[in-house]
Amino acid sequence: MDPIPSTRLLLSLARSGAISAARRLFDEMPIRDTIAWNAMLASYAQSPFPHLALRLFPALLASSAAADAFSLSAALSAASSAAAPCAGAALHAVAVSLGLVPASRPVVAAARKLFDEMPVRSPVAWNTLLKGYADWGESELAVSLFVEMAGDGFVGDGHTFSVLGSVASETGDRRLGLSVHGKVIKLGWAAAVEVGNSLISVYAKLGLPGDAQKVFDHLPERTQISWNAVMDAHSRSGHVGAAMRLFVAAPERNAVSFTTVIAAMARQGQPGQALELFSAMISAGIAPDELAFAPALSACSALALLNPGTAAHAVILRRGFDTDLLLSNGIIYMYAKCGDLRASMMAFRGAQFRDLVSWNSLILGMAVHGKAGEAMAVLAGMEKTARQTDGFTVCGVLVGCSHGGMVEQGMSLFAELVDGDGDEVVSCAVDVLSRAGMLREAAELGVICGDSDEDEEAVAAGMVALSNERCMEGNWGGAEDVRRAMAARGTRKEVGGSWVEMGGVVEVFGSGVFGGLLEGEVEMVREVVGCLHLEMRQLG
Asked: What is the pTM of this model?
């Protein structure tokens, strides 16, 4: 039976003052949808009996109808008219659980109080409180409520397992995640898309992209969230190729899709591809958010591309994202890495918030451009603020000392802090000595400090320095012995590389590495370099 005519009559009776007759009609309605409930609640709220609306509201939560913003509005109006602040707080809690207002701990507690007072608890009521706990991060209470729910005879539905999956995903609880998946299969909810999406996110957080893919493959229906979740699962595990294939295969792509793959590319050392996809995102008319700008800035820093980085900064300012600490730090480092130290310092001074990463970004940026004195000055300013340094801070200053030839200052700093830091600091100290020509000291430091597997980079630096020293002495056999020893232990020093931007295209090259150049092109490059070398010698 269509409830609309009865609802209209109910409102007519209430407006004429026959509120009791309106309630009898409501009770006799064979089908009561949300509109009918809202009509009765609003009628009570506007009558001399607002407290009756507050009594009726829990029955709505226990029914099969879903409370909405109009239901809450009528009930809150009744609480105000009845001068019932406790009821108002409880209704606020319900509004939170329905996603109508932000949550807070007191509100969740009030929701539990209202739940405990309900004479009959429907699946909607159970799921509403469960979601409230999940949204506030009360994972233990959420799991406890699920156990209580089962004891009360409600085994759970798609909404229940979707929420429990999100709890397992947020906490990274492997046992809970596998348990939820088991119950989903047992109770026949595996085909529900919202449940499947939640399980994909669980396996993504657990670092199990293969299991996430299996859940995705068995979903009879997939939403945009499904595609994004499985992309994220592969991206988190470093499977950029798999994530990109899913990205291409997806029927539609949104900001989350683009950001997920862009971030994966930036993390896995593919900054050029990350920037290309970022540009494609903008060309597709999809506005990047804070999460998309972060890897884009990282890619600009990795390739030292000032123009795209400056353009990204302008958009970040225009959209008001500059108060985001992650982006603020990314901007500081991007300018520093690109060599615009003045802009980097301005971004640092203008940052609304600063943390250890902010200071480290500025120090390292100055250091890589040989501004050792400036890096030391920033360190001094950092110490004045009582900000605690870490290994990255020390590495940054040591890099500056290495490029600036400040051996004494660098090794003094290393001596002060070496006990608290690891192999990266040792490697930087080895580099300080090596660049100053103190190859034997560098070799000894690298080998002495590189006893563990964690210090392999320091060992590599030390052994390369020792090999170079023997070459300079004319001891070619000794140098070869060192190289053989490196090969025997599997020690490798990463080949140096560089890049150049021409016409918006970044070309990467390195010592002994010619990328995709043909043999003839390699020979041409050598000839050009030879000509330049002669011209430079003639110019003195």
From this structure: 0.68
